[in-house]
Design a protein that fits this description.
With 372 residues, this protein is an alpha/beta fold. The protein has 3 domains: 130 residues, NIF3 (NGG1p interacting factor 3)-like (Udp-n-acetylmuramoylalanyl-d-glutamate--2,6- Diaminopimelate Ligase, Chain: A, domain 1); 109 residues, Udp-n-acetylmuramoylalanyl-d-glutamate--2,6- Diaminopimelate Ligase, Chain: A, domain 1; 99 residues, Alpha-Beta Plaits. It is built from 11 helices and 15 strands. A 6-stranded mixed beta sheet has the order 5-10-12-13-14-11. It has a 5-stranded mixed beta sheet with strand order 1-4-3-2-15. The two termini are 47 Å apart.
Length: 372
């Protein structure tokens, strides 16, 4: 079946809703047209000129990146080298770029969860929590015989997902009545005559972030000239999400022992310890990427050590003052594993939906960081 970029976006919205992103962030479809067809996707941390070249060589239709390709507002295009080497080729080759940044950091199974799992954190909690996305219940009335096509469109748009199950709906039979008035062109019935039609009440759940796209798709495929539907806000959000993780390791050890364990698990050439490497630790706070802003929160959460990708000089001084050792692993090193998790997750979703879409891992991305 033909798969459009908007279909991929619907799945990404389920994995990491754009509503999760920080206000300062820039996420979503940043380059391209949602109506474009997709056969091959390249997943990467960043969109660089070498990544764009790789995407063109591998005949990719869409790139999904963690870091936004466009971050600050553009006042012009073509004045900078990156425009000519990155944006121009993407537009010329019609390659879309979708970015999931802080929303993927926060999401369940996202960047921070992946790092915490690798670190072996147990009884894991969120460091800076916030309420997860809210859902709506969508109810639509469909003439009998058309309920399957409407259900499939709803699911393809991202509605009807509960856990690892898709196409989750409830259907009940009933009798609908209506009287087409002057100026109408009814699918069933005649002007001026009250019509009775056996209909199916179709119910499903929809994430708030995609509710209007789902409704538009439903209306497009629904056979009626005027579609009767209801949206009911659900009181219970999807649960807590947020940045950073807090958990305990399997046994008490020194900061240096734990750093060596992490170095081995992540297959790193080097790690950096800031602070008392001989301190005995049990509670670990982690934050992938640049987590230096959360030093105070890590202390408040009872952390014995803080593991992050990178930290600024004055943030490190604060950590030293507060008696919190830092294990600095590298920005790229802490976020890279989540890209492989995302690739596997997407491919499983596509296969379950019978989407003939191949998800590729960038080989060029891994060549950007070289230890000497």
């Amino acid at each position: 079946m033909s798969v459009q970029i908007r279909d991929i976006i619907a799945i990404m919205e389920k994995i990491a809703p754009t509503s999760f992103a920080e206000d300062w962030d820039n996420v979503g479809l940043l380059v391209g047209d949602g109506n474009g067809e997709v056969n091959r996707i390249l997943v990467t941390l960043d969109v660089t000129s070498s990544i764009v070249k790789e995407a063109i060589e591998r005949e990719v239709d869409m790139i999904i990146s963690h870091h936004p390709i466009i971050f600050s507002p553009l006042k012009s295009m073509g004045q900078n080298l990156e425009d000519r080497n990155i944006l121009y080729p993407l537009i010329q080759k019609d390659i879309a770029v979708y970015c999931a940044h802080t929303n993927l950091d926060k999401a369940k199974g996202g960047v921070d969860d992946t790092l915490a799992d690798i670190l072996g954190l147990q009884n894991m909690e969120i460091l800076i929590g916030e309420e997860g996305e809210r859902y709506f219940k969508l109810v639509v009335f469909v003439p009998r015989g058309y309920e399957e096509q409407v259900m499939n469109v709803l699911s393809n748009k991202g509605a009807g997902f509960i856990g690892n199950y898709s196409h989750c709906t409830f259907q009940a039979k009933g009798m609908g009545t209506f009287k087409p008035l002057e100026g109408t062109n009814p699918f069933i019935g005649s002007q001026g005559v009250v019509e009775k039609v056996e209909e199916i009440r179709l119910e499903t759940v929809v994430p708030e972030s995609i509710v209007y796209d789902v409704v538009d798709g439903m209306i497009d495929v629904h056979p009626y000239e005027e579609v009767a539907y209801d949206l009911y806000p659900l009181a219970t959000p999807t649960g807590e999400i947020g940045l950073g993780r807090v958990g305990k390791i399997d046994r008490i050890m020194t900061v240096e022992e734990f750093a060596r364990r992490v170095k081995e698990v992540l297959k790193l050439e080097n790690v950096r310890i800031i602070g008392d490497r001989g301190k005995m630790i049990e509670t670990v706070v982690s934050c992938a990427g640049a987590g230096g802003d959360f030093v105070r929160q890590a202390v408040d959460a009872g952390g014995d050590v803080f593991v992050t990708g990178e930290i600024k000089y004055h943030q490190a001084l604060l950590a030293l003052e507060l008696g919190l050792p830092i294990i600095e692993l590298g920005h790229y090193e802490t976020e890279r594993p989540a890209m492989e998790v995302l690739i596997n997750h997407l491919q499983k979703k596509f296969n379950a939906l019978q989407y003939k879409v191949e998800v590729l891992s960038s080989s060029t991305q891994h060549e950007l960081v070289v230890n000497i």
